[in-house]
Specification:
Blueprint (H helix, E strand, L loop, with lengths): L4 E9 L5 E10 L4 E5 L6 H8 L7 E6 L2 E2 L4 H6 L1 E4 L11 H11 L4 H14 L15 H13 L5 E5 L7 H16 L3 E5 L3 H7 L2 E6 L2 E7 H9 L16 H10 L16
Parallel strand pairs: 3-8, 3-9, 6-7, 7-8
Antiparallel strand pairs: 1-2, 1-4, 4-5, 9-10
Helix pairs in contact: 3-4, 8-9
Length: 270
């Protein structure tokens, strides 16, 4: 089966010689809800930007749905949706105007664009705010509008960079239901988030990046088994409890990333 997302030896080096992403390779199968995790500065957003054509890699290749991103950028972008870091919304438009612009850019006809825009604004709880300029939206409202724009053309692959940041619990529940519905219809979702509970609830497969390198990649059960094999068993010979994704993440990158241990304290707060 051709992967929905494939990266081979993907690398990005910035001016000054800093390598943010260093020869990573990964494959995401069609229909997977794939979580991409890492500490701050690990290379997550840089990777998403390269996978979606927002940033040119220094070296390496990207294929989306079997098509090379460099050779066929327009065809690839017709089939993907992106909620990037920073959202990149047009602040001087209303929500309705913005969705109309995005829909027409994806080649949707006027009637379908209007129908989907109205439905998305209602679904996202923005129907009563559609005359307000996007510049006057709260951060959470902007996130919902960015996600609406990312799915208006019914993409086969959806890239989400911190989509739940700044979104209230009610809206987050609505968005999670929508994303699970997309997976049920065969879409592929590539998600980065620091909210590990959400990733654990939604994703079936996870890769962890640290300092530009993939340090773990597989299903949640595979990652859990790998970490548990390194931990001391209890008296029965079995690990004491089933590890959470947070425990897997900390065991994989915590010490290397210099994360403060719970027993450490600041000198002036002792």
């Amino acid at each position: 089966m051709t992967p929905a997302i494939s990266a081979q030896s993907l690398t990005r080096t910035f001016d000054g010689g800093f390598t943010a992403v260093d020869h990573i390779s990964l494959a995401v199968e069609p229909g997977q809800f794939f979580g991409f995790l890492g500490p701050n500065g690990a290379g997550k957003s840089t990777t998403i930007k390269m996978l979606t054509g927002l940033l040119a890699p220094t070296s390496g290749t990207v294929q989306i749905l079997g098509q090379d991103l460099v050779a066929n950028p327009v065809e690839v972008k017709r089939n993907i949706g992106v909620v990037p870091e920073g959202m990149a919304l047009f602040g001087r438009l209303t929500a309705s105007e913005y969705l109309t612009f995005v829909g027409r850019m994806y080649g949707l006809d006027k009637a379908i664009t209007q129908q989907r825009s109205e439905e998305l604004l209602e679904f996202m709880g923005l129907a009563n705010e559609q005359k307000k300029l996007v510049a006057d939206y709260s951060h959470g409202m902007g996130k919902k509008l960015a996600l609406a724009a990312a799915v208006i053309h019914n993409p086969r692959v959806l890239f989400l960079d911190e989509p739940f940041e700044g979104v209230d619990a009610i809206a987050a529940q609505t968005l999670k239901a929508m994303l699970q519905g997309m997976i049920a219809r065969g879409a592929t979702i590539f998600l980065t988030s620091h909210v590990l509970e959400i990733v654990e609830r939604l994703c079936t497969h996870v890769a962890i990046i640290n300092r530009g390198h993939i340090v773990a990649n597989g299903s949640l059960d595979e990652l859990r088994a790998g970490v548990q094999a390194r931990l001391a068993p209890d008296a029965s010979g079995e690990p004491a409890t089933k590890l959470t994704l947070e425990q897997i993440f900390l065991a994989t990158v915590g010490t290397e990333s210099g994360i403060t241990h719970p027993e450490q304290e600041l000198s002036w707060l002792k």
